[in-house]
Amino acid sequence: LVSGSRSSKTFKPKKNIPEGSHQYELLKHAEATLGSGNLRQAVMLPEGEDLNEWIAVNTVDFFNQINMLYGTITEFCTEVSCPVMSAGPRYEYHWADGTNIKKPIKCSAPKYIDYLMTAGTSCSGTSDQTKRLIRARWCVPGVPFPKNFMSVAKTILKRLFRVYAHIYHQHFDSVMRLQEEAHLNTSFKHFIFFVQEFNLIDRRELAPLQELIEKLGSKDR
């Protein structure tokens, strides 16, 4: 999906869930239900499963999906073309991780997304919320969920939504030229149904794509 000319800085390797683990079995369940075509059913918590585990597995899966999607358009998303991380003229996003960057900073879209993707693929250190979640659940499988797991997961999903919003507002023409709009739309619809099912992103945060969200949802009523 990614040509040699595209930047490898932001496009990060997939974060794989160890085969044989319970998380891996949950991911396979998710993939099987997605194959049914019923996305609302696919996002529902499987009977008898732990909510935190289900959210963790899906968060990593969405991370990988968005990582791949963004990787296809990195040559169009540059410091020059996207000097701020935004979703149209009304929404601008600043980065802070609470540790290394405590006060939110204005940065380009590729820089913002690089901060997010780098944090999500690193097992070294615990410098921000994303690394703490990834380290706790994937670099050291089987350790208990941290007490602040849900708030950390919500922060990650909120930031992943912002990548979707940026792609739709700033790069959808490029996505169409690459003939990847169906892939993007299906991925985003899955993501939205999931965060709505468990109330993981504040409605105000979804405002940049509210019209699209309503359109996607209306088709399943």
UniProtKB/TrEMBL annotation:
InterPro entries: MOB_kinase_act_fam, MOB_kinase_act_sf. Keywords: Kinase, Metal-binding, Transferase, Zinc. Pfam families: Mob1_phocein. Zn(2+) binds at C77, C82, H166, H171. GO terms for molecular function: kinase activity. This is MOB kinase activator 1A. It comes from Tauraco erythrolophus. The lineage of its organism: Eukaryota, Metazoa, Chordata, Craniata, Vertebrata.
